[in-house]
Protein backbone atom coordinates (compact mmCIF):
# COMPACT_ATOMS: atom_id res chain seq x y z
CA UNK A 1 0.00 0.00 0.00
CA UNK A 2 1.31 3.48 -0.82
CA UNK A 3 1.52 5.69 2.25
CA UNK A 4 -1.16 8.36 2.34
CA UNK A 5 0.65 10.34 5.05
CA UNK A 6 3.28 13.05 5.28
CA UNK A 7 6.85 11.64 5.10
CA UNK A 8 7.36 12.15 8.84
CA UNK A 9 4.31 9.95 9.46
CA UNK A 10 5.36 7.27 6.95
CA UNK A 11 5.38 3.73 8.32
CA UNK A 12 6.39 1.98 5.12
CA UNK A 13 8.51 -1.08 5.92
CA UNK A 14 7.32 -1.26 9.53
CA UNK A 15 5.43 -4.23 10.97
CA UNK A 16 2.79 -2.98 13.41
CA UNK A 17 1.10 -5.31 15.90
CA UNK A 18 -2.23 -4.13 17.30
CA UNK A 19 -3.50 -6.29 20.15
CA UNK A 20 -7.25 -5.81 20.58
CA UNK A 21 -7.69 -4.95 16.90
CA UNK A 22 -11.09 -6.54 16.33
CA UNK A 23 -13.21 -3.49 17.06
CA UNK A 24 -13.38 -0.03 18.56
CA UNK A 25 -10.21 1.96 19.14
CA UNK A 26 -7.91 -0.94 18.21
CA UNK A 27 -9.61 -1.40 14.83
CA UNK A 28 -9.41 2.33 14.05
CA UNK A 29 -5.72 2.40 15.02
CA UNK A 30 -4.92 -0.65 12.88
CA UNK A 31 -6.65 0.88 9.86
CA UNK A 32 -4.86 4.22 10.37
CA UNK A 33 -1.43 2.57 10.75
CA UNK A 34 -2.05 0.65 7.50
CA UNK A 35 -3.01 3.90 5.75
CA UNK A 36 0.32 5.30 6.95
CA UNK A 37 2.05 2.45 5.10
CA UNK A 38 2.58 -0.08 7.91
CA UNK A 39 2.16 -3.84 7.47
CA UNK A 40 -0.34 -4.90 10.09
CA UNK A 41 -0.69 -7.82 12.45
CA UNK A 42 -3.98 -7.64 14.30
CA UNK A 43 -4.49 -9.89 17.29
CA UNK A 44 -7.38 -10.79 19.55
CA UNK A 45 -8.95 -13.72 21.31
CA UNK A 46 -11.07 -14.83 18.33
CA UNK A 47 -9.65 -15.14 14.83
CA UNK A 48 -13.05 -14.69 13.15
CA UNK A 49 -13.82 -11.43 15.01
CA UNK A 50 -10.73 -9.87 13.42
CA UNK A 51 -12.22 -10.35 9.93
CA UNK A 52 -13.93 -6.95 9.61
CA UNK A 53 -10.77 -5.00 10.48
CA UNK A 54 -8.69 -7.20 8.16
CA UNK A 55 -11.17 -6.63 5.30
CA UNK A 56 -11.10 -2.86 5.82
CA UNK A 57 -7.30 -2.84 5.64
CA UNK A 58 -7.20 -5.11 2.58
CA UNK A 59 -9.92 -3.10 0.82
CA UNK A 60 -7.64 -0.07 0.80
CA UNK A 61 -4.63 -2.08 -0.39
CA UNK A 62 -3.01 -2.76 2.99
CA UNK A 63 -1.25 -5.89 4.18
CA UNK A 64 -2.60 -7.68 7.25
CA UNK A 65 -2.10 -10.90 9.20
CA UNK A 66 -4.56 -12.12 11.84
CA UNK A 67 -3.33 -13.77 15.07
CA UNK A 68 -4.89 -15.12 18.24
CA UNK A 69 -3.87 -14.02 21.74
CA UNK A 70 -5.39 -13.76 25.19
CA UNK A 71 -3.36 -11.11 27.02
CA UNK A 72 -4.63 -12.34 30.38
CA UNK A 73 -2.55 -15.47 29.74
CA UNK A 74 1.20 -14.86 29.67
CA UNK A 75 1.82 -18.16 27.84
CA UNK A 76 -0.54 -17.02 25.11
CA UNK A 77 1.48 -13.79 24.68
CA UNK A 78 4.66 -15.88 24.44
CA UNK A 79 3.02 -18.13 21.84
CA UNK A 80 2.01 -15.07 19.81
CA UNK A 81 5.57 -13.73 19.83
CA UNK A 82 6.99 -17.15 18.89
CA UNK A 83 4.38 -17.71 16.17
CA UNK A 84 5.02 -14.34 14.56
CA UNK A 85 8.76 -14.98 14.74
CA UNK A 86 8.28 -18.27 12.85
CA UNK A 87 6.44 -16.34 10.14
CA UNK A 88 9.32 -13.87 9.92
CA UNK A 89 7.19 -11.11 11.43
CA UNK A 90 9.06 -8.89 13.86
CA UNK A 91 6.88 -5.95 14.97
CA UNK A 92 8.74 -2.71 15.53
CA UNK A 93 5.45 -1.09 16.59
CA UNK A 94 3.23 -2.57 19.29
CA UNK A 95 -0.15 -1.17 20.30
CA UNK A 96 -1.63 -2.63 23.48
CA UNK A 97 -5.34 -2.00 22.98
CA UNK A 98 -7.09 -4.97 24.58
CA UNK A 99 -9.61 -3.92 27.13
CA UNK A 100 -12.75 -4.54 29.07
CA UNK A 101 -14.97 -2.29 31.10
CA UNK A 102 -16.36 -2.64 34.53
CA UNK A 103 -18.36 -0.28 36.68
CA UNK A 104 -19.72 -0.66 40.16
CA UNK A 105 -19.50 0.31 43.79
CA UNK A 106 -16.08 -0.20 45.35
CA UNK A 107 -17.91 -1.84 48.28
CA UNK A 108 -19.04 -4.65 45.98
CA UNK A 109 -15.91 -5.42 43.94
CA UNK A 110 -14.82 -9.06 44.18
CA UNK A 111 -11.22 -10.30 43.94
CA UNK A 112 -12.20 -12.01 40.66
CA UNK A 113 -13.44 -8.71 39.20
CA UNK A 114 -10.27 -6.93 40.34
CA UNK A 115 -8.10 -9.64 38.76
CA UNK A 116 -10.16 -9.69 35.55
CA UNK A 117 -9.57 -5.98 34.93
CA UNK A 118 -5.95 -5.85 36.08
CA UNK A 119 -4.97 -9.06 34.25
CA UNK A 120 -5.98 -7.56 30.91
CA UNK A 121 -5.11 -3.87 31.33
CA UNK A 122 -1.99 -3.92 33.49
CA UNK A 123 -0.52 -7.42 33.63
CA UNK A 124 -1.35 -8.09 29.97
CA UNK A 125 0.14 -4.78 28.89
CA UNK A 126 3.33 -5.42 30.87
CA UNK A 127 3.92 -8.93 29.51
CA UNK A 128 3.15 -7.92 25.93
CA UNK A 129 5.66 -5.07 26.31
CA UNK A 130 8.18 -7.56 27.68
CA UNK A 131 7.66 -10.19 24.96
CA UNK A 132 7.89 -7.75 22.05
CA UNK A 133 10.26 -5.31 23.76
CA UNK A 134 12.90 -8.07 23.89
CA UNK A 135 12.72 -8.43 20.12
CA UNK A 136 12.78 -4.66 19.60
CA UNK A 137 15.88 -4.47 21.82
CA UNK A 138 17.59 -7.01 19.55
CA UNK A 139 16.80 -4.71 16.60
CA UNK A 140 17.75 -1.54 18.52
CA UNK A 141 14.47 0.15 17.58
CA UNK A 142 10.84 -0.03 18.59
CA UNK A 143 7.76 1.92 19.49
CA UNK A 144 5.21 0.79 22.04
CA UNK A 145 1.86 2.50 22.50
CA UNK A 146 -0.21 1.53 25.53
CA UNK A 147 -3.84 2.44 26.07
CA UNK A 148 -4.31 4.42 29.24
CA UNK A 149 -7.40 6.54 29.88
CA UNK A 150 -8.62 9.88 31.04
CA UNK A 151 -9.50 7.93 34.21
CA UNK A 152 -5.76 7.49 34.91
CA UNK A 153 -5.50 11.08 36.14
CA UNK A 154 -9.11 11.93 36.95
CA UNK A 155 -11.54 9.82 38.94
CA UNK A 156 -15.05 8.60 38.40
CA UNK A 157 -17.50 7.13 40.87
CA UNK A 158 -17.88 3.42 40.20
CA UNK A 159 -14.61 3.15 38.26
CA UNK A 160 -12.10 2.58 41.08
CA UNK A 161 -10.60 -0.67 39.77
CA UNK A 162 -10.34 0.63 36.21
CA UNK A 163 -8.88 3.98 37.41
CA UNK A 164 -6.20 2.10 39.35
CA UNK A 165 -5.35 -0.12 36.36
CA UNK A 166 -5.07 2.80 33.95
CA UNK A 167 -2.98 4.91 36.37
CA UNK A 168 -0.75 1.85 36.49
CA UNK A 169 -0.56 1.71 32.70
CA UNK A 170 0.56 5.36 32.48
CA UNK A 171 3.22 4.96 35.16
CA UNK A 172 4.36 1.61 33.72
CA UNK A 173 4.73 3.38 30.38
CA UNK A 174 7.07 5.97 31.91
CA UNK A 175 9.06 3.32 33.77
CA UNK A 176 9.59 1.16 30.68
CA UNK A 177 10.43 4.22 28.58
CA UNK A 178 13.23 5.11 30.97
CA UNK A 179 14.56 1.56 31.24
CA UNK A 180 14.43 0.78 27.53
CA UNK A 181 15.54 4.12 26.04
CA UNK A 182 19.13 2.82 25.73
CA UNK A 183 17.73 0.05 23.47
CA UNK A 184 16.07 2.52 21.11
CA UNK A 185 12.59 1.62 22.32
CA UNK A 186 10.12 4.47 22.80
CA UNK A 187 7.22 3.70 25.11
CA UNK A 188 4.24 6.06 25.18
CA UNK A 189 0.55 5.90 26.00
CA UNK A 190 -2.70 7.35 24.74
CA UNK A 191 -5.28 8.52 27.26
CA UNK A 192 -8.63 8.81 25.49
CA UNK A 193 -11.72 10.23 27.06
CA UNK A 194 -15.01 8.35 26.62
CA UNK A 195 -14.96 7.08 23.04
CA UNK A 196 -17.92 5.71 21.11
CA UNK A 197 -16.86 2.09 20.63
CA UNK A 198 -19.23 -0.90 20.68
CA UNK A 199 -18.47 -1.49 24.36
CA UNK A 200 -19.23 2.09 25.38
CA UNK A 201 -22.30 2.33 23.14
CA UNK A 202 -23.69 -0.77 24.90
CA UNK A 203 -22.96 0.77 28.31
CA UNK A 204 -24.68 4.01 27.33
CA UNK A 205 -27.74 2.04 26.23
CA UNK A 206 -27.86 0.47 29.68
CA UNK A 207 -27.18 3.79 31.48
CA UNK A 208 -28.53 6.52 29.15
CA UNK A 209 -28.02 9.27 31.74
CA UNK A 210 -24.27 8.64 31.62
CA UNK A 211 -23.82 10.14 28.14
CA UNK A 212 -24.70 13.66 29.31
CA UNK A 213 -22.55 13.19 32.44
CA UNK A 214 -19.55 12.35 30.26
CA UNK A 215 -20.25 14.90 27.51
CA UNK A 216 -20.64 17.73 30.06
CA UNK A 217 -17.04 17.12 31.23
CA UNK A 218 -15.68 17.53 27.69
CA UNK A 219 -15.20 21.17 26.63
CA UNK A 220 -15.27 20.22 22.94
CA UNK A 221 -18.83 19.10 23.57
CA UNK A 222 -18.96 15.53 22.31
CA UNK A 223 -17.65 12.07 23.06
CA UNK A 224 -14.63 10.94 21.04
CA UNK A 225 -14.81 8.70 17.99
CA UNK A 226 -12.30 5.86 17.52
CA UNK A 227 -10.79 7.81 14.60
CA UNK A 228 -10.03 10.72 16.97
CA UNK A 229 -7.75 8.39 18.91
CA UNK A 230 -6.11 6.81 15.85
CA UNK A 231 -4.35 10.04 14.81
CA UNK A 232 -2.43 10.05 18.09
CA UNK A 233 -1.36 6.46 17.48
CA UNK A 234 0.00 7.32 14.02
CA UNK A 235 2.00 10.17 15.57
CA UNK A 236 3.44 7.98 18.34
CA UNK A 237 4.21 5.14 15.90
CA UNK A 238 5.93 7.33 13.32
CA UNK A 239 9.31 9.09 12.99
CA UNK A 240 7.49 12.35 13.84
CA UNK A 241 7.64 11.32 17.52
CA UNK A 242 11.15 9.86 17.62
CA UNK A 243 12.16 12.16 20.51
CA UNK A 244 9.00 11.49 22.53
CA UNK A 245 9.08 8.76 25.16
CA UNK A 246 7.44 8.06 28.51
CA UNK A 247 4.57 10.37 27.61
CA UNK A 248 0.85 9.81 28.05
CA UNK A 249 -0.99 11.79 25.39
CA UNK A 250 -4.46 12.94 26.47
CA UNK A 251 -6.99 12.80 23.64
CA UNK A 252 -9.88 14.08 25.65
CA UNK A 253 -11.45 17.17 24.10
CA UNK A 254 -10.09 19.14 27.06
CA UNK A 255 -11.59 16.93 29.81
CA UNK A 256 -8.56 17.11 32.12
CA UNK A 257 -8.92 20.87 32.59
CA UNK A 258 -12.68 21.01 32.98
CA UNK A 259 -14.32 21.43 36.38
N1 LIG B 1 -13.82 3.45 24.65
C1 LIG B 1 -13.42 4.30 25.59
O1 LIG B 1 -14.17 5.18 26.03
C2 LIG B 1 -12.03 4.24 26.10
C3 LIG B 1 -11.25 3.12 25.96
N2 LIG B 1 -9.98 3.11 26.48
C4 LIG B 1 -9.15 1.91 26.35
O2 LIG B 1 -8.90 1.66 24.99
C5 LIG B 1 -8.79 0.26 24.78
C6 LIG B 1 -9.79 -0.15 23.73
O3 LIG B 1 -11.07 0.22 24.18
P1 LIG B 1 -12.39 -0.01 23.29
O4 LIG B 1 -12.05 0.07 21.86
O5 LIG B 1 -13.46 0.82 23.86
O6 LIG B 1 -12.71 -1.50 23.71
P2 LIG B 1 -13.54 -2.63 23.00
O7 LIG B 1 -14.18 -3.39 24.08
O8 LIG B 1 -14.41 -2.07 21.92
O9 LIG B 1 -12.38 -3.47 22.33
C7 LIG B 1 -11.44 -4.07 23.12
C8 LIG B 1 -10.86 -5.25 22.37
O10 LIG B 1 -10.00 -5.96 23.27
C9 LIG B 1 -10.26 -7.32 23.13
N3 LIG B 1 -9.90 -8.04 24.33
C10 LIG B 1 -10.54 -8.04 25.53
N4 LIG B 1 -9.93 -8.88 26.38
C11 LIG B 1 -8.88 -9.40 25.71
C12 LIG B 1 -7.87 -10.34 26.05
N5 LIG B 1 -7.84 -10.93 27.25
N6 LIG B 1 -6.94 -10.65 25.13
C13 LIG B 1 -6.97 -10.09 23.90
N7 LIG B 1 -7.91 -9.21 23.51
C14 LIG B 1 -8.85 -8.87 24.41
C15 LIG B 1 -11.76 -7.38 22.86
O11 LIG B 1 -12.13 -8.61 22.29
C16 LIG B 1 -11.94 -6.22 21.91
O12 LIG B 1 -11.69 -6.58 20.59
C17 LIG B 1 -9.01 -0.39 26.14
O13 LIG B 1 -7.77 -0.61 26.78
C18 LIG B 1 -9.80 0.66 26.89
O14 LIG B 1 -9.64 0.53 28.28
C19 LIG B 1 -9.45 4.17 27.13
C20 LIG B 1 -10.19 5.29 27.27
C21 LIG B 1 -11.51 5.43 26.75
O1 LIG C 1 -18.78 5.49 31.58
C1 LIG C 1 -17.57 5.78 31.54
O2 LIG C 1 -16.90 6.04 32.53
C2 LIG C 1 -16.95 5.81 30.23
O3 LIG C 1 -17.53 5.38 29.26
C3 LIG C 1 -15.60 6.32 30.12
C4 LIG C 1 -14.77 5.43 29.25
O4 LIG C 1 -15.10 4.11 29.45
C5 LIG C 1 -13.34 5.58 29.53
O5 LIG C 1 -12.84 6.65 29.72
C6 LIG C 1 -12.60 4.36 29.54
O6 LIG C 1 -11.25 4.61 29.76
Automatic annotation (TrEMBL):
What EC number(s) would the UniProt record show? 1.1.1.127
Against InterPro entries, the record matches this protein to: KR_dom, NAD(P)-bd_dom_sf, Sc_DH/Rdtase_CS, SDR_fam
Question: Which PROSITE patterns has this protein been placed in?
Answer: ADH_SHORT (PS00061)
- Stated name of the protein: 2-dehydro-3-deoxy-D-gluconate 5-dehydrogenase
**Homology family:** Belongs to the short-chain dehydrogenases/reductases (SDR) family.
**SUPFAM superfamilies registered for this protein in UniProt:** NAD(P)-binding Rossmann-fold domains
Q: Which Pfam families match?
A: adh_short_C2
UniProt KW keywords: Oxidoreductase
Report if keyword Oxidoreductase is assigned: yes
One Gene Ontology MF term: 2-dehydro-3-deoxy-D-gluconate 5-dehydrogenase activity
> What SMART domains does this protein's entry cite?
PKS_KR
Instruction: Please state every residue range assigned to the domain named Ketoreductase.
Output: 14-193
Which domain of life does this protein belong to? Bacteria
Amino acid sequence: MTSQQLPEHDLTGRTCLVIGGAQGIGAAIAIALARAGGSLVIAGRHHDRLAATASAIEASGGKVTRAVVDVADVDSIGALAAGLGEQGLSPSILVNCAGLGGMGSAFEVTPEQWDGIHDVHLRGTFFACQAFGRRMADDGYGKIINLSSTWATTVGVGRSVYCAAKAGVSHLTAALATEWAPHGIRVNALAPTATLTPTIEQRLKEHPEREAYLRDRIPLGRLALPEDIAGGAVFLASPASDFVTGHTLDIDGGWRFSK
